[in-house]
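Service request form, structural biology core

Requester: graduate student, group of Dr. S.
Request type: structure prediction, single chain
Budget code: on file
Notes: please return the result as structure tokens.

Sequence provided:
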Amino acid sequence: MPQPRIMFYHDGRHPLIYMYEPPIQREEYEAAVDELVGTPVDALMFCLGDGRTVLHDTKVGELWGHNVEKWPHLVFRRAHQNAKHLIESGNDPLRIVCNRAHAKGMLIYPTLLVQQGRGPREQDVRCSNFRFDNPHLEIGARGDLKTDFPGVTCLDFKHEEVRLERFALIEETLNNYPIDGFELQLNYTPYYFHPDEIEAGREIMTAWVRRVYEAVKHSGASRELAIRIPASLEGCLQVGLDVRDWMQQGIVDVIIPQTFSGPELVDSTIDFRPLVEAAKGTNCRIHAAIQSHVDSDRLGEASIEMVRAAACNYWAQGVNGLYLAHWFGNWPYQADFYEKLRELPHPEVMASKDKYYYVPTETGRYPKPVTEPGIAMSLPAGLAVNRPTEVKFKISDDLLRWHRVGRIHEVLLRVRIMNTTELDSLRFQLNGVDLPDELLRKLNEMYRMTAPRYRTGSGYWFIYRLDEAQWPQRGDNTLEVTLLKRDPDIIPESYIRDIELEVKYLMGKHFHRGQDADLGPYECAGI
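Core staff response, request fulfilled:
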């Protein structure tokens, strides 16, 4: 079996079984595959429903909604109606997707959301009776954890009953469906043991992963086990996942590190190098999870320039492939979606094309985005008088190379400082080099009447059109901001909210920027 480079995660719900009016037709369900035909996607990673319950014909698990009489959630009811209809008509939903993927030359890896919490029975209509009937198997069963601990109602994998229930669903899928591999999504709610029992838990989880791996290989020697994890090796250890040991033991084929899984934010700053290094000398590949959501005050989904920036940063770190996580949020897919997909496998094609790097920050839906264990947000970052604040970011562009052949159009650095006034004084340094005022343009956004998506207030943009002497370097960069003088009448703390770097290229030496609005009719015609 060929090894896929581009994997696409489809949650099997939002752009599919939620969308179509019951009774859903087989052809409508096949859209999960058909919408990706002709793209660089090699493998479809197809989610098995909610994880606690599933949306296919299972004998060892539980069908989504089978235990619900009255529905408080209409869309969740629709999912149950559609799945039940397909199964009863002899069209198992998972088999439809498997057969269609193979018919169109695409690999198929079912994905299990291994872990998830539990809500009240009358509200949590996606939950299984196994979960409702066994609260003693949960991490918080001892009653000694704070209620805000994110894993308090998650399954505790120290219990054999838990591990067997999860394994039975995996084994059934391996034995009953024509698949090419299986994905364990361990980053959905990445808590598996009581915080006091993590060290012992690592051995338990490693043994369970080994059992899953052996079942995958027993069901088909060419089949692969892929595992999605938090993007930090140390963070994984903190929750009982000894990923380095899995790779060294050879019990995983593909590791998929991911950040911002909950808010689903694109992040060009992730450092995959420790995982890439840990995989050397093993048979394990590293596929970097790349997302497309931005959720800024100006933009919902990432532009192609933002996607290029993140993808090129990932390829430059030596990853073996990309995993397109949550891109199904772009549904229904339009031309710009396919345009982003087209270039992704080719970092050399994207190298001299426009890129837009930005550091993840506060968003509209998630003012304080949740991060995975071992991962910390760089922004927002507070500013105090005469105390330099550093924020690090990466770029993959070899600016000097492209400058030598006349391809660089401009390099723009944008920094948004909140709670600052015209009386404040700030100093900006990039990699230890002062950014001079003659390169600066300030934008006053102390107050905004409107905004493309939502309003932010009390801020100024500091925008530098960088000369060659101030350009960022390929790889790691450090921006240092120092508040030299503070308006004495202001109470709120000043802080860095946004950092963005935009690199614009020419198609060739002395070429015009054909999309520029200020070009005259003769220039647009190439005259």
